[in-house]
Amino acid sequence: MASPLYPRITLRLMGDWGNANFHLIVGLIAAHMRSRSAPGSQFWLKTGTGFRDNIDALASGEVDLAVTTPYDVTLEWAREGRHFFAGTPYPQLRALGYYPQNDRLIFAVRADTGLTSFADIREQRFPLRVASTRRDPDNLLTYVIERVLELHGFSVDELLSWGGAWLGHDHPRKSLPQAIGGDANAVINEAVMVPQWYELVEKVPMRFIPFDPEVLATLQREYALHPAVFERGRLSNDVDVPCLDFSNWAVAVRADMDEELAYHITAVLVEERGEMESRYRHLPPERAPLTYPIDPYKMCVGNGAPLHPGAERYYREHRYLR
Prior knowledge:
Blueprint: E1 10-14, H1 21-36, E2 42-46, H2 52-60, E3 65-68, H3 73-80, E4 93-99, E5 104-110, H4 118-124, E6 129-132, H5 140-151, H6 156-161, E7 165-168, H7 172-175, H8 177-180, E8 186-189, H9 195-203, E9 206-208, H10 213-223, E10 227-230, E11 241-245, E12 249-254, H11 259-271, H12 273-278, H13 296-299, H14 309-317
Parallel strand pairs: 1-2, 1-3, 6-7, 6-8
Antiparallel strand pairs: 3-12, 4-12, 5-8, 5-9, 5-11, 10-11
Helix pairs in contact: 1-11, 11-14
């Protein structure tokens, strides 16, 4: 019997709610590190939202690895203690790489509202009932959405004062049905590839509201959030729609992780990427949560934290990073 590649370990990993993409990643890591490690190794998977709870658990040592999104700004803000993580810097965060996801933060309203812009909402004090993520101080998506609205001239609290409503759920698959069923007449969210987005635009005439160029410029300059375009036809939209990028899933660890362990986990992410892709290949890439194929030459650059030395050694040894 071949000797294990790594000694006996206990590895604690944090994904998502337990039934989505981040848990597939940590499950992949656990399964393959189990076969690469000595008998008796243990692997613990913890549920989370992917935002502050994942980062706090990782930084505090409660878990050894966590997945988060977007892959760059979340780790940048957390390492520097800025914006969403103001006052709590975590310079010890490191990256093993990322898995690609072509995602956007978009805003859509029912066509029968007659609204075409953020200015219309603000000037009419329109009482929108918005299906979105939960208003939770630990939710990074909430933080970004509230900055978007405020820079466009109104807050969630003002929207509520106009007779509107905020219908929140932190799982997009649970949030969007509120608009499909008619409880909401607007949606601001990401996860643009989930089936509920497609069901919404098939059942309800929707209009996508473009983000103002000045707002996008401010978000990029002050928050390092990336402007993007929601391409024409992706959700039956007839024009390109300016919006925010919300892409890619970062696999993060701490600087104190053993170098060999980081090396072997990175090897799993790269060498077993075909297994990860196989979970999504029944969908075309533009409708799949994971944007396949996974490219190891790309997944090791652009992360919001430095590569862990073990991960960097793996990528350099295999000539993915030079």
